[in-house]
Design brief:
Rossmann fold, 14 strands, five-stranded parallel sheet, 3 domains, six-stranded parallel sheet
């Protein structure tokens, strides 16, 4: 049996739940020093080091003048993308654009009767870097990553959006990526990947100017590089393995449940697929479906390893218990395969994205539904949100005091400043009071 179902109250079930509640981990520490060395190398030697790494790991004959995707390459990409794929890219782009336009924050101002004005000024960052993984040497281009990361940045008003992605062995980028980027207004694209690409975006080289924000998924080297440069620049999040939790009642469809668990399991051997169900029969039928459907998958070895080592199926006493456990786990993708799922929605507190009903597989959200698929993992949905327009915005406070407002607040400012031992703060008020009195 690929996964053994347990009662949530059994010793085995409690052990699974304890591990799920405490699953946060930083990027693989085995690459930490290697990444630190790469970052320092790029910082010190710039383009020279960037080219060396790109030649060594991706494209042996890459030259510096080939680093940036040319206008000719961008134009030629359209002739290599068929009409069906173009239609899908356009549909996804429009859906993602429409959804994220609702997220835009506005600046605002408050006024008081004494003439004081306070408020918040919302402005975009100046530049953003989009990391797009190579996808098996360009054979499986992650077009959705281009759209999900680039569109919110554009809506925010980021003036410069730059994309980096590893080239294939011949030094080219999959045309679908180039078309997707152009469709959302990105034409500054560089053929470089992994930790050295993150370093170039963070520190800058002669060829690649630095950015303010870096977003996008990647392997452990990319994740660790983002972690190490965070603070100097903003990053989207520290992403862990992809994960799904399905809550299903006794009349759900086992084939749908198994298919959605496998959709997560095929990502990575570390991917996490969980089923919480109120029915032992449902649990058993789902296991049978997993075994049957696995044989049809191109990535069946990865999916089998993920399910065997990380998959969890627990039987709960009722849906309320399953909801409580899901809130404790704070999953990336939460699917509610329940009768009247919207009635349960008010009880959900922590999840990256919530999929309601039998015909809302997580794959809808990955590609065309509209909401962003860059989501918090490893339990960080308790404190974090999906990537959105706000990832590319910063907010400045506004304070303007009239003479009268200053006089009204002067004593309170001095009281608090003196309490904290910051006499120069208080003195800045006294100086103005003295000037007013004279």
């Amino acid at each position: 049996m690929i996964i053994t179902p347990y009662s949530s109250s059994s010793p085995e079930g409690r052990q699974h739940l304890a591990g799920l509640a405490d699953r946060f981990q930083l990027a693989d520490s085995s690459c930490r020093q290697d990444v630190a060395d790469i970052l320092n190398d790029i910082k010190q030697r710039g383009d020279e080091a960037l080219l060396e790494y790109t030649r060594k790991f991706d494209s042996p004959n890459m030259t510096l003048d080939q680093l940036k995707v040319t206008d000719q390459e961008l134009e030629a990409a359209y002739s290599q993308v068929d009409n069906d794929l173009m239609a899908s890219i356009t549909l996804a782009k429009d859906r993602i654009q429409t959804f994220h336009e609702r997220e835009m924050d506005d600046s605002w101002i408050l006024t008081r009767e004494d003439g004081a004005i306070t408020g918040r000024l919302v402005r975009p960052v100046t530049s953003a870097g989009l990391y797009v993984p190579g996808g098996q040497g360009g054979k499986t281009p992650l077009v959705s990553s281009v759209l999900m990361n680039g569109i919110p940045a554009g809506i925010a008003g980021v003036g410069r959006r730059v994309m980096v992605t590893p080239p294939n062995e011949k030094g080219s980028v999959n045309p679908a990526l180039l078309v997707a980027a152009q469709e959302i207004g990105i034409t500054e694209i560089y053929k470089t990947g992994s930790a050295w690409a993150i370093a170039a975006l963070a520190f800058g080289t002669d060829s690649i100017a630095p950015v303010d924000v870096i977003v996008g998924p990647g392997n452990q080297y990319v994740t660790e590089a983002k972690r190490q440069v965070a603070g100097r620049i903003r990053i989207d999040m520290i992403a862990g393995p992809s994960e799904v939790l399905i809550i299903a009642y006794e009349f759900a469809t086992p084939a749908f449940i198994a298919a959605d668990m496998l959709a997560q399991a095929e990502h990575d051997p570390q991917a996490l697929a969980i089923l919480l169900t109120t029915s032992q029969d449902m649990a058993n039928e789902t296991v049978k479906e997993l075994e049957e459907q696995l044989s049809r998958l191109s990535r069946k070895d990865i999916a089998r390893k993920s399910l065997a080592e990380r998959g969890v199926i627990l039987i709960t006493s009722d849906v309320d218990e399953a909801i409580d456990l899901a809130n404790d786990i704070a999953i990336e993708h939460l699917e509610l395969m329940l009768e009247a799922p919207f009635e349960w929605l008010p009880k959900i507190n922590h999840a990256g994205a919530i999929f309601l009903g039998n015909y809302s597989p997580e794959a809808c959200g990955d590609y065309v539904a509209g909401p962003n698929h860059v989501l918090p993992t490893m339990g960080t949905a308790r404190i974090s949100s999906a990537l959105g327009v706000e990832t590319f915005l910063k907010k400045s406070s506004l304070i303007s005091y009239s003479r009268q407002a200053f006089l009204n607040d002067a004593d309170h400012i001095m009281n608090l400043a003196n309490l904290e031992g910051l006499t120069a703060h208080a003195h800045s008020v006294v100086e103005r009071l003295n000037k007013i009195e004279s």
